[in-house]
Amino acid sequence: MSRGKILVTGGLGFIGSHTVVELHKAGYDVVIVDNLDNSRPQVAEAIHLTSGQRAAFYPCDIRDRAAFSNVLAEHPDIKGIIHFAAYKAVGESVDKPLKYYDNNINGLVELLKQMNEHGIRNMLFSSSCTVYGQPEKLPISENTPLQPAESPYGNTKKIGEDILRDATFTGSIRGVALRYFNPVGAHEKGLIGELPIGVPQNLVPFVTQTAAGLRDQLRVFGNDYPTEDGTAIRDYIHVVDLAKVHVKAMERMLDGEGPSYDIFNVGTGRGHSVLEVIQAFERVSGKSLPYAFADRRSGDVVEVYADATKAERELQWKAEKTIDDMMRDAWTFQQHILNKTHILNRNNNV
Ligand code: NAD
Ligand code: WQD
Q1: Which CATH number covers residue 333?
Q2: Does 349 reside within a domain?
Q3: Considering its fold, how many domains does the chain have in total?
Q4: Is residue 172 assigned to a domain?
Q5: Which pLDDT does position 346 carry in this prediction?
Q6: Rg of the chain in Å (alpha carbons)
Q7: pLDDT in the model for residue 314
Q8: Which residue range(s) make up the domain with 238?
Q9: pTM for the full predicted model
Q10: pLDDT in tens, 137-171
């Protein structure tokens, strides 16, 4: 028997698709709204092949008030919304700030208004560790002071959290912001994963594309950081672990537990340097990765990793997968894309 119906905005994207699979596994029915700006309709079938269940999928923009309202009217039994739909490219947001404010802020406001109109109370919001910048103290807890945003993208996450918090003050909405650290990897079946458009800006897709022969070599940005091996440190988290925390956080809201607004860090609590990521990749893939050291990338911080104990304590969730799992599953997915271009057929992927 179904445990209820959850709407997932951006449900065909990287984190959304994995979360839909975990919602299915936990017994929920899922409605996906995605405008396909950064995904392909074939991902709906890949989700079905992964979870064994189908989600109802609507190719719709959440800012299209009439179309989105129709979707909600068709599903009056939606209990909560997990809101992934947003743009996420840090560099692009510097060049096109209004594109980012329009989608990430107006999209959120529109969604909250629609929740009020349709009587939907519970919302999970995708925030990011980018709101912390480079803090003075590590690990980063939810009480670590936030820094001014480095990019319009980062600012949309800070503002988005404030908007959600303020909306919960009216009493009609309950909200949780999840601050993801660095999500990587893919479902182990290899059918869903991360599909960057054009040249990947993030480390792990660049690693797997280089190993697959699509890129000549990886540039390691900076080997003179004040870390043990000189390369920068991040808290990489497996996307399946990340997907699972959404189920836990949503269940707590559906049970009426917790405050009306809450924030959780979502990381492993452990940092890995860029060189450690490369070594893990080489270990699990058996391939040697061509790389060279390059200058530091502008805007990069030295070291971040989460204090994720609040999620463990209050949501009974803890990341379980290792850096080797992340690299192995990212590599499986990369090989799948090369072999099955008919499923994830993206002309501009390479
Ligand atoms: P993604 O681009 O893979 O997924 C987002 C999905 O939303 C895409 O399928 C896209 O087509 C859809 N979408 C965008 N705007 C929409 C709109 N107006 N209406 C309907 N659909 C729309 O991104 P992701 O990596 O899965 O990230 C999901 C969320 O998590 C985003 O809010 C992102 O900012 C946040 N986040 C991501 C990371 C990361 O490193 N991937 C880290 C921290 C936070
Ligand atoms: C990781 C490390 C790079 C590429 C970004 C966003 C952040 C959040 C997560 C959304 C860094 C190094 C990278 C390459 C490299 N997203 N690197 N060569 O910058 O920590 O975080 O994604 O909210 O907001 O900024 O992730 O994967 O780009 O970089 O050496 O070709 O890998 O310098 O040290 P980042 P990343």
Answers
A1: 3.40.50.720
A2: no
A3: 1
A4: yes
A5: 45
A6: 19
A7: 98
A8: 5-342
A9: 0.97
A10: 999 999 999 999 999 999 999 999 999 999 999 99
